[in-house]
Structures are given as structure tokens and as C-alpha cells.
Design brief:
2 copies of one chain form a homodimer.
Chain A lengths: L3 H9 L1 H12 L11 H17 L3 E5 L6 E6 L9 E6 L19 E5 L2 E5 L7 H18 L6 E6 L9 H7 L1 H4 L3 E4 L11 E3 L1 E2 L1 E10 L5 E2 H4 L6 H10 L22 H8 L5 H6 L14 H6 L3 E10 L8 E2 L2 E10 L5 H14 L6 E4 L4 E3 L2 E2 L5 H14 L4 E3 L6 H10 L2 E5 L14 E3 H19 L2
Parallel strand pairs in A: 3-6, 3-7, 7-19, 8-18
Antiparallel strand pairs in A: 1-2, 2-6, 4-5, 5-20, 8-19, 9-17, 10-14, 10-15, 10-16, 11-13, 12-14
């Protein structure tokens, strides 16, 4: 089956592809907030219907949380590898809403100095990226009447909220989901125009704690002085997480972390990443992490302990002379190498509890989540096929990169289904994913669709 | 004019006095929040009408903020001192609302193990305390047809939000407001049943700052590591405010602080204050402030730097892997001795700015406020009269105490009107002022009214 008419069909159908993506973007499928349960159902229904429209046997599958979407096309005897394509239809919360220039769930096409973009929550992470693969399949089917290989589609709706239903679902449906390799489109290009395949991903640990001092909010005139202030207490605890060199000061934190081999470091230095541009684009002039490591190493190959939320006391207009009863902190760690999430959680909790003042009480998240880092087997033939396909589409040698983000699914595909993953994404670092004014470049979307068409072609030809 | 029938009238009228107070408590006059502008007007109107009902020439006076209430009764030739009575009709915000057991502005009489209480925002601070004086005047007028001396009433509606209109108003109406002494009912008894007159008050400095790191919220997978996290930055800055001994580590912070004379310390030790009860009542087992000072000294005679609000990042359900663009902190200091609020503000700002990381930008409150500490002239005859009156009502020697809170008005009466203040209050430490479930003991209200009747009698007899 020839590729060229598929690429032409993709070009001709781009406006309709964008219209379909916008329909999906209008559904506010925020998975972490229980108020958006119905929109998550709606997004799953939309995907089932869309997959069915291109001849895929797709269904919504219930879970205790948000539903999965599973679709199948092709038969065991089909030529080429059997691939599973994974994406997620849920999105991050939109706060702070007042910083959005347009409503997050009313997507718009906008012209910017860096080209045309699709603006709206989920445009990049992950609805836009997910639809690059679906649109590639649609074009292939339209031109050739069938897809080039056997494909399983697997979309979840809890990626942005820790995927609580994912592991049980994968275990219960292991036979149905097994394929030769998983394709995942949820990552960025290392720099604009440089096609990128992820060779390693950081893992993740999430936790949260509340410090209680006095049993009630107090007046700072009465208890200011003798009273333990949970805000001062939590600030001291958070400040204790790092030393003056930006290293995490939790004992044993770096157990299982390996230095990057020299040849890999050299390859990364040549991958088109411009440190100053990367930092300047968000208002930084220098890297702020661990001393002695480049920005790229800090992001791809070093673990972190970040504070994602910190709050307590009065936040309104004016002032309130209060010593609040409680203070709260949400943290996430990025894990590399062989760091063990469960062991790390114990170390962090021990670090905090050893530093608590008398009369300070602590409660921890009842459902912390962790996943180890992933390192891909890039020697597989599918990686060679993807490198060739991407290099042809982007007129630039594809690079195998690290990734700062955490895509736990890759680890689960390996551990539960014994299946390698290949992560190819077309996002830009300035897409503002998880932030106000998220966008996806139309070029990412268009050439992303074309890229998948080429990858399917390369993997199945000869 | 004899006192006894006035006291009898107060006893007989108590239920009506409580009913009137509850009317006032139902008006949600939160001064710091612009949404409650009308209720502040309503509370002022209510007071004008109530004063007029007992023959006082009272008016609502406009300011750029919430109005003042000013009332006059008596003439320059009247016997006895001319007193000014000051109180405030505004209240603190009610958050966190979910911790209230009854709606904050639907006051209730409740029976508790410590006696009957009036529950609701403002019941103690300051509507209940303010009405003790008004009710004493009402009884005096009902019995004798007139009040025992010349009285000016002066109520403001911005005490809980920094009193921005107070100084200009006092300056513009200095002649009208001048009296021999100011009486203020906005303080606590040092312990239940021990009548207390404040001999010194702490001053106050308020400030607020925002730390901006990246120009937008970032994904912690991309910038976690190289990115400056404002939450970590603000925690480090807040943690730098104190050393390991609980002392404020800002250079020059203690300039103007004097140690308490030994005889005064001895008197305080004998004033009925029970440290363990005071600490245990809110969940503490030990004092947490400056090492080397008792709880009472920490509260009355030592300065503080407290954090009243600290926030940034994601606070909702679930988790969000964000590095937020901004973090915020509200602080207040309590001042003693000769500490200079303006100089102190500069020192604190210099402390913070000297510790900022590269790429961290800081903005400060445009309208910080400060007032120095006050020390009263307790040798005046009105203090002797008040001690005698209070000792008679409470069957216990009245004590001259310090006060941890800040009542800037006392300093302004001195500096603008050349007038001493006498602060007598009937609140309890467990009244939960500024907190959910604020209450005022009915005993405080009842004996508070009787106390003022006795004070007026003692000051004007002979």
C-alpha cells in the first residue's frame, strides 16, 4: 500500500481534522476534579464514536473511576507488527482561570509569531497528540480501505490524576491488550523541528501532608509568640528538603541514581537543545537545580523533589491577624535510574517527621502514588523504522532523547504486558501544558499526523 | 446619683440587652472585604439609632472607607471627667466557614460547660464588648434620666482592616473628639474572673509580598530541576525569619525592645494567668516562642514576626504537577517598647531581598501599615477609680496587665488628641475571636455592663 496518497489525503483533510479535534477539546474532561465526572464520560463516548466511524471495533469500558476506551482493528494473521496505540483523553485543571486569555474549553485557531496554533486546555496534552495517530489511521483507511497492520487503541481518562484504575484494568484485560509494541504520543520534541523519540522517562512519586498546630485558628495578638505557627513550621520543613547546592537533602534520596554515560551525554549535547532559549522562554536567566549538572541533565537524568502546592492561613484581600490551625503541602518527585518509589516515600516521610516541632501533628496522603523510571530498548526494529520515518518527514535526523516528564504507562506496559513502548510526540516546550493558555502548533498537529502515517508505513513495509 | 438602682435595672434588662446585641451581630459588617460595604453602613446606622434611643446626639459620619459613628451627651460644665468611649462595629472575615458549627451571622445563646455564651462573629470582638458600655449608659439614663458625666461616643468600622480612615478623621475632628480620657472596651481578662486594665499594648506592622519565578505556571516534568520554584523560594525566605531559638533573625529587629523590669515581672506572675491552661486550651503542651521568656512575657512584652497567610500552586483535590509562577506571603509583626514600625518594615524588606535567588522577583504590599506600641499612664485618677469599681464588681483585686494584641487607636488618641486611654475588657482567651465559632460569655456581657456602670460612678463621685 503506497504512502504518498495517504500523505496527500492528510493534507487535504487538515481543516476537518482540526474541526474534529476542537469538538473533543470542548469537552472539559478534568479527571482530578469530581465535578467533571460527566465530561470525562462524554470525552470517552466521543472517542468511541470517532473510532467506530473509521471502522474500528471500539467500546467504552467502565472502571471504578473514569472509563477506558478500547478499540481493535485487524486480525492475528495480518502482516507487520501488532501495535497498541495509547493516549489519554483527560486534561489538567484550568486554574488559575483568570490568567487565560480565552476560555480554556472554547478552543480557537490563533496566528502567533511562531505560526498558527490551536489554543485551549488539552490541545497539546494529550487530546491534540492523541488525535495525530487517529487522523493518520483515518487517512490510511480512506485511501486504502484498511489499515496497514493490526492495531489496538487504548485511551484512558485518569492520566492527569494518577491513573488509579489503570493497573487493575490492564491486569484484567492483559490478553486483550497485549501487542508487539506500544506507541505513545504524549511527549515533546527536544526543540522545534527536531523529531524526537524518548529513550528514557523519569518516574514519579506524589505525596501530600498537612501540619496541624493549634486546634483552632488563633489571634496572632494572643498567641503570637508562644504559639506554634503551622505556616512557619511548614516553611521550615519545605526549606529543609534542599541544601544550598540545590541537592535534595533527604537521606538516601539519591540511592539508585546513576551518572549518565559520557557517550550519551555527548549525543545529548548535539541534539539541538538550546539551554538559554529554553530558560529564557519562561523568564529564567540561569539554571536553578543541582549544581554541576547541565539543564538537560537536570531535566532528563536527575531526580527532583518539587513542591506543587503550599498553603494555609488567610489568602483574601486585606489582612487577617491569624495563626491558622493548619498548613498544607503537595509534593512530587521525579525519579531516575533504579530509584524505588515506595522506599523513597518512606525516606521523605521520615525526613519530615524527624524535623517536626513539639505539638506539630502531621497527616499524610492516604493514597500516595509512585512509578519508577523507564529505560527503552531502542535496539528494536520499530525504533529504526520510526527514526527513518521521522527523519524523512522533518528533513532532520531524529534523535533519541531523555524526557523530564513521567509517563508511568510505559513502565506498566513493560511490567504487566511484557511490552516495550516507543514514545514519539510533537509538542513544543512552550505549549504551556498544565498552564493557562495551553496551545498546540498546527504544524505539530499536521506533521504529527503525517509522521504517524510514515511510521506505520515504515514498520509494515518489506 | 446612686448606683444600686442602676445595677438592678441592668440585671432586670439583661434579656433585652442580649436581644439588642443579637440584632447587631446579625449584620455581617466585615470591613476588609469590599463585598460587605453595605452591611458596614447598616451596622453604623443601627448604632446611630440605638444611641439616639437613649438621648445621645449621634450621627453617622462619612469617610472614604466605612463610616464613623460619633455621639455626644452632656455639656462642658458637667461634673466629673469628660470621657470618650471608643469601640468598633466591624468584624473579621469568617473563613474557614466550614469550621463553624452555626452560621457566623445567626447568633445563638448556647449553654456550655463554662456557662451560657452568645455565639457568633463579633459577639466578643468587638460588638459584644462595645455594647457593654452602651447598655450601662442605657440603664443609667433609664434610672436617673441623664448620664453621670459628659460622654463622647466614637465607633469606627475599619478596625479589623487597618483603620485607613481613622487618622485623617481624628485630625479633621480633633476639637470635637477631645476629652479628658478615652475608655476602650476591646481587650480580654487575664484569666476568667480577674478584672484587668491594660497597662501596655503591643504595636503592629503589616506587610505582604509575592515572589514570581517563571513567567507562567510550568510543568514539573519539563522544568522540575532547572526551574526556580517560587514555593521552595518562599519557604526558604519564611524559614530565614527565625533562628533555632525562636528569635527573629532579621538584623536590627530588636532595636527599641526593653527587658521587663523585675517588679513588673513579679506583679505579672501573680496576676492569675495559668500558662498550662492557656497553652493546653488550644492544643499546645509547651510554649514555642523565644527561648528564655515565659509565655506571658512572649505574649505581652516581646515582639513577633508571624506569617498569617502563605500560598501558591495547586490547592484542589488530587494532584497537579505544576511549578507555579507565583507564591504569596502575608506577615504581621507585634511591636513593643520603642520599636519603630517604618524602620522595621525597611529591615524586614532588606532581609528578604538580600536572600532572593537569581531570577526571583519580589513585589511588596503597596499599603503596609504600622503603629507603635503603647504604654499607659496608670497614675491617673481614672485608673484608681476603675480599679476600685472593677474590684467591687468581680470580688477580686483588679490587675494592670500587658496585652499581646494591638489597639493602635490608643496610640493615636495620645499622638493626635493628647489624650490617655484606659482599656478595660471582659473577653476570655477562649472566645475564639478572629476564629470560627467566636463567642462571648453571658457573664462577660452582664458583669461587663455592671462594671462600666460602676466605673462611671467611681469616676464621677466625690
Amino acid at each position: 500500500m503506497s504512502l504518498d496518497p495517504v500523505l496527500s489525503r492528510i493534507d487535504a483533510d487538515l481543516d476537518q481534522s482540526i474541526t474534529r479535534l476542537m469538538e473533543l477539546l470542548r469537552i472539559p474532561s478534568i479527571s482530578t476534579d469530581p465535578a467533571y465526572q460527566q465530561p470525562c464520560q462524554d470525552a470517552a463516548d466521543w472517542l468511541v464514536k470517532d473510532l467506530q466511524s473509521i471502522g474500528i471495533d471500539a467500546q467504552k469500558r467502565p472502571t471504578p473511576g473514569h472509563p477506558m476506551v478500547v478499540g481493535h482493528v485487524g486480525d492475528p494473521g495480518d502482516a507487520g507488527p501488532h501495535v497498541l496505540f495509547y493516549g489519554h483523553y483527560d486534561v489538567q485543571p484550568v486554574d488559575p482561570l483568570e490568567l487565560w486569555n480565552t476560555p480554556p474549553f472554547e478552543p480557537e485557531l490563533q496566528d502567533t509569531p511562531n505560526g498558527r496554533v490551536i489554543r485551549g486546555r488539552g490541545s497539546s496534552d494529550d487530546k491534540g497528540q492523541l488525535m495525530t495517530f487517529v487522523e493518520a489511521c483515518r487517512a490510511w483507511k480512506a485511501v486504502h480501505g484498511k489499515l496497514p497492520c493490526r492495531i489496538t487503541f487504548f485511551f484512558e481518562g485518569e492520566e492527569e490524576s494518577g491513573s488509579p484504575s489503570l493497573i487493575p484494568f490492564m491486569k484484567d484485560h492483559a490478553e486483550e491488550l497485549k501487542a508487539d509494541i506500544a506507541l505513545i504520543c504524549d511527549t515533546s520534541m527536544v526543540s522545534p523541528g527536531v523529531p524526537s523519540i524518548a529513550g528514557q522517562l523519569r518516574g514519579m512519586l506524589k505525596d501530600e501532608f498537612t501540619i496541624t498546630g493549634p486546634t483552632i485558628d488563633l489571634h496572632s495578638g494572643h498567641y503570637g509568640g508562644p504559639g506554634l505557627n503551622p505556616l512557619k513550621e511548614i516553611a521550615r520543613l519545605v526549606a529543609s528538603f534542599h541544601d544550598d547546592d540545590g541537592r535534595v537533602a533527604v537521606e538516601g534520596f539519591y540511592d539508585g541514581v546513576h551518572e549518565v554515560p559520557a557517550d550519551q551525554l555527548a549525543a545529548w549535547q548535539d541534539c539541538g537543545f538550546d539551554e538559554q532559549t529554553y530558560l529564557n522562554s519562561v523568564g529564567y536567566t540561569v539554571p536553578h537545580g543541582e549544581k554541576g549538572y547541565s539543564t538537560l541533565e537536570q531535566q532528563w537524568a536527575r531526580p527532583t523533589l518539587e513542591v506543587n502546592g503550599l498553603w494555609g492561613g488567610y489568602q483574601g484581600a486585606g489582612s487577617k491577624t491569624v495563626i491558622p490551625s493548619q498548613a498544607h503541602c503537595k509534593i512530587t518527585c521525579r525519579l531516575v535510574g533504579d530509584m524505588d518509589p515506595a522506599a523513597l516515600q518512606k525516606k521523605i516521610r521520615a525526613h519530615v517527621e524527624a524535623r517536626l516541632s513539639p505539638d506539630a501533628k502531621i497527616t499524610w496522603d492516604k493514597t500516595p502514588e509512585g512509578s519508577p523510571a523507564s529505560v527503552m530498548d531502542t535496539s528494536r526494529p520499530e525504533f529504526a523504522a520510526a527514526r527513518a520515518a521521522l527523519s524523512a518527514e522533518w528533513n532532520r535526523e531524529a534523535v533519541v532523547t531523555g524526557m523530564g516528564g513521567s509517563i508511568p504507562i510505559a513502565g506498566f506496559f513493560k511490567s504487566i504486558l511484557g511490552m516495550e513502548s516507543m514514545l514519539i510526540g510533537f509538542a513544543h516546550d512552550d505549549d504551556a501544558i498544565h498552564s493557562p493558555n495551553e496551545k498546540y502548533n498546527v504544524e505539530s498537529f499536521h506533521k504529527g499526523i503525517r509522521s504517524w502515517a510514515r511510521v506505520l508505513d515504515e514498520m509494515t513495509k518489506g
